[in-house]
């Protein structure tokens, strides 16, 4: 059976006009119901929901205005088209004020009514699709997606809604993989700016010149390759929020320009001469000791105080291990409609692990394990070697036995595991992996060569 294009109620006391409209709309594959007067129309509205109502203005028992008011009272998303042979400018204005989509005078052109109905139904469907999309986005990016029941997480859950409604800039402090972007997006979506853009940029991902162009835009010819004028992210985010991830990596020369935007709400595109005014809330994040960066002169003190109006500290996973079972269950449900179970022994291994990569590392491991195992339950043997191997490392560290150990081999094995684990967490980016282990890039590269890790 062919699906209808929409459900329409025609309220018209003239039988010939009612039948013409029904035949016309039936021919366009709409599901059409009719009512012979206003009272019958009101009764139909109590019994069903319609995408569109077409109603005459002058009718016995109840007029078109009463039908329009009833529709907007019980089904605000339903579109209403008014038709009349006695129309005036005043009645048309009144109908539109009350929420009518269109006002048509009789006699009308068949093609005209067909086009108006088509556009009205399309508008209704688009509105529904946008509503569903918005609901999905808000569900994904509000606090519902930040999982935790530990005291530290509960404190953060109480703090986020309170500061979301303020205009103050927020600095999120947390280790890599702890969920800083989730918190930033929740702050935006719980604020009065949620209808506007939320723009994210990782300051560590761009060179100085490219980062400046991304943030503030550029004019044609400002530099080699600038073939056209380009809006910056601050311009695009006007009225909304900008999330500056890894703010500690921003070059000192750009920090002055960012400070100007925060203080005055103005900036200039690269190569531009005109000030551009914006209203943007800045949410930033760092995994560095930003106060140490200020002390060392690598980060401007005045910018730090502008960004750090309200600090939010995200605890690392190793400090809230009671949240691991909740997180595991959450990630297993994300991987499948019929999620796998995890045995108590496998869960204990996860609870005992150090989680240098925090929640992101846990999510990656659970997703990978769930996808690769054919079993309904995840047992210890299904977990990757960095988890099971960690237990072996703990046995070595716990103390010597009468058999003794080869200490060079033990330390080498542990070091190699951490090198491989850091590379996996960092997605193969060596500079990021070195940071996870608090090593210089040169020292990290030397260790990779030492263990033949390519």
Features:
alpha/beta, five-stranded parallel β-sheet, Rossmann fold, Helicase, Ruva Protein, domain 3, elongated, 454 residues
How does the overall form come out from the CA principal axes? elongated
Which sequence of strands runs across the widest sheet? 2-1-3-4-5
Cα(first) to Cα(last) distance is 60 Å
What's the number of extended β-strand segments?
Answer: 16
Notes on the protein architecture:
The chain folds into four domains: about 5-135, Rossmann fold, CATH 3.40.50.2300; about 145-315, P-loop containing nucleotide triphosphate hydrolases (Rossmann fold, 3-Layer(aba) Sandwich); about 315-380, Orthogonal Bundle (Helicase, Ruva Protein, domain 3), CATH 1.10.8.60; about 385-454, Homeodomain-like (Arc Repressor Mutant, subunit A), CATH 1.10.10.60. By secondary structure, it is of the alpha/beta class. The protein has 19 helices and 16 strands. The longest helix has about 30 residues, at about 110-140.
């Amino acid at each position: 059976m062919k699906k209808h294009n929409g459900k329409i109620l025609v309220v018209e006391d003239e039988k010939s006009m009612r039948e013409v409209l029904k035949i016309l709309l039936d021919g366009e594959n709409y599901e059409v119901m009719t009512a012979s007067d206003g009272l019958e129309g009101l009764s139909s509205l109590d019994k069903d929901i319609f995408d569109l109502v077409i109603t005459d203005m002058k009718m016995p028992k109840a007029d078109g205005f009463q039908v329009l008011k009833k529709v907007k009272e019980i089904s605000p998303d339903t579109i209403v088209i008014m038709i009349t042979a006695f129309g005036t400018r005043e009645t048309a204005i009144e109908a539109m004020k009350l929420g009518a989509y269109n006002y048509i005078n009789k006699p009308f052109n068949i093609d005209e009514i067909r086009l108006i109905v088509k556009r009205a139904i399309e508008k209704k469907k688009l509105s529904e699709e946008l509503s569903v999309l918005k609901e999905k986005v808000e569900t994904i990016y509000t606090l519902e997606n930040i999982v935790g029941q530990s005291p530290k997480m509960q404190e953060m859950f109480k703090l986020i809604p309170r500061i979301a409604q303020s205009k103050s800039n927020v600095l999120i402090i947390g280790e890599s993989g702890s969920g800083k972007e989730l918190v930033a997006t929740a702050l935006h979506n719980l604020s009065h700016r949620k209808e506007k853009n939320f723009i994210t940029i990782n300051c560590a991902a761009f060179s100085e010149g490219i980062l400046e162009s991304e943030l503030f835009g550029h004019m044609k010819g400002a530099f080699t390759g600038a073939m056209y004028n380009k809006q910056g992210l601050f311009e695009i985010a006007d009225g909304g929020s900008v999330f500056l991830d890894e703010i500690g990596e921003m070059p000192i020369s750009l920090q002055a320009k960012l400070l100007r935007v925060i203080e005055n709400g103005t900036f200039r595109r690269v190569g531009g001469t005109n000030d551009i005014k914006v209203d943007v809330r800045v949410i930033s994040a760092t995994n560095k000791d930003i106060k140490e960066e200020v002390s060392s002169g690598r980060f401007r003190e005045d910018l730090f105080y502008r960004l750090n109006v309200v600090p939010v500290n995200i605890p690392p996973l190793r400090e809230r291990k009671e949240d691991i079972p909740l997180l595991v269950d959450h990630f297993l449900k994300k991987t499948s409609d019929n999620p796998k179970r995890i045995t108590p022994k496998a869960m204990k291994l996860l609870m005992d692990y150090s989680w240098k990569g925090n929640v992101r590392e846990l999510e990656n491991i659970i997703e990978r394990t769930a996808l690769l195992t054919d079993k309904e339950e995840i047992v210890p043997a299904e977990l990757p070697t960095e988890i099971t191997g960690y237990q072996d490392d703990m046995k070595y560290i716990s103390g010597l036995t009468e058999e003794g150990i080869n200490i060079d081999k033990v330390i080498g094995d542990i070091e190699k595991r951490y090198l491989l684990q850091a590379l996996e967490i960092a997605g193969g980016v060596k500079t990021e992996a070195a940071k996870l282990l608090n090593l210089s890039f040169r020292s990290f590269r030397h260790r990779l060569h030492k263990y033949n890790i390519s």
